Amino acid sequence: MPRIVVVSPPFASHAVPLATLAESLCARGADVFFACTEEFAHLAQGDGVGFIPLTVTRNANTGVAEATRQPLDEAARLAEFLEVTRAGAVPTLLTQARHRRADMLADPEEVLRKLRALDKRLRPDWYVTDQLSFAVTLALHCMGATYATFCPGHPTYLPASPEAYFGVPYDWPRALRPDTAKADLLLAAARENDLAFTGMFRSFARRHAPTAPLPSRAFALASPHAVVHGYPDLPWLPRATGGPARLLAGHMVPPHAPPLDADWSLRVERLRRRADRIVLVAFGTFLSARDDVLRTVIEGVLEGLPGTGVIAAAGHRSHALGDLAGDRAVVAPTVPQQSLLNHVDAMVHHGGGNSFTECLRAGVPALVLPFSSDQFAVARDVERLGAGIVADPNAVQRAQVRAALDDLRGPVSDRALSASSQLRSRGPRWAAAQLLSVMAERSSVR
């Protein structure tokens, strides 16, 4: 079995699924190391996976972005990002495009130095790296290392054609589709980023690996062998012709996700005494800061759905929303989302890839309120799949929340359950088996 180093950026929404994949590879006999910052060492404890302390980026998110210690410039960028989400989809994506120019290739020489030292010490047969850790991918490319790519977000984050650009949704949900002028502005910014970063990648490769092939496009640089997607294989997704094996795992929920602990079991039990339906509300590790939208959603449930309880993950804003907690509402900084999804009837989320796939796996219909990044593409998939409803987070009103949650019953719930039965046949174990098969095949060819 191969020796594999799984390299993760220090972001909870990326590190957790990558650690799950590492554990699944280890369970199938591979010699696996999980490389990330010390804050995530616990993800490699007790499952046979070794841990290597490794920092590959300047910013971090250990579970609640606002509560994570950041350098001053990174904290300022986070604050700007959160504020611009109030202005809508295109301004947010334009700001994110500008931020990428400042931090996407932060200190690539140091990343290359660290990976070369790690490679010399461990001599792994393969690496697995996060697709969004561009400096790591570029370093592995320059090293001539054999690696697989893990894509944590929407599959189109790896452009499938020359006309596709990173940061531009492949399609928009109906409620957030921009007009032509705004769409053209976003496309122009994405093209500019594509050209600029491809030039940076090529310049770096010429300096550090003059005999290596030059990257054709920075955002499309990925393993030539295998790309693992923690995402379902939806028939309408754009497809690249040829290239690496595309392994669409459906979801990255651990095979044996822990049950609710005693405290959370008691909270759910108390809610069930007051409500025959429970809605989980969570906007991920960054967007819990949008407490204005959280408040609208929670109040929409409490004021208009008397038979419904709510559990809300409010991050650093849990105190600001504490007045809403009561017999039918639990407001907490964080929640055990994967475990709770087995005990709730609907979810309101931001369109993050993990939330989308975890809902599908659990058969839970969702109201999706996308703010940024690939969330608009994910929301469009929810819409097309018919397993949820999409609304504009900056325009949603309490009455709309109530109506949407009512509409999640019946056919929408049935479609979510149908998707669940299909997703459960895959997951991290399936992805590990398929990836090890690709590794064995490529090794025999070499």
From TrEMBL:
Report a single Gene Ontology molecular function.
hexosyltransferase activity
Q: Name one Pfam family in it.
A: EryCIII-like_C
Which residues belong to any copy of the Erythromycin biosynthesis protein CIII-like C-terminal domain? 331-420
The leader peptide range reads: none
Q: Which InterPro entries match?
A: EryCIII-like_C, Glycosyltransferase_28, UDP_glucos_trans
Q: Which GO terms describe its biological process?
A: antibiotic biosynthetic process
State the UniProt keywords alphabetically.
Transferase
Quote the protein name from its UniProt record: Glycosyltransferase family 1 protein
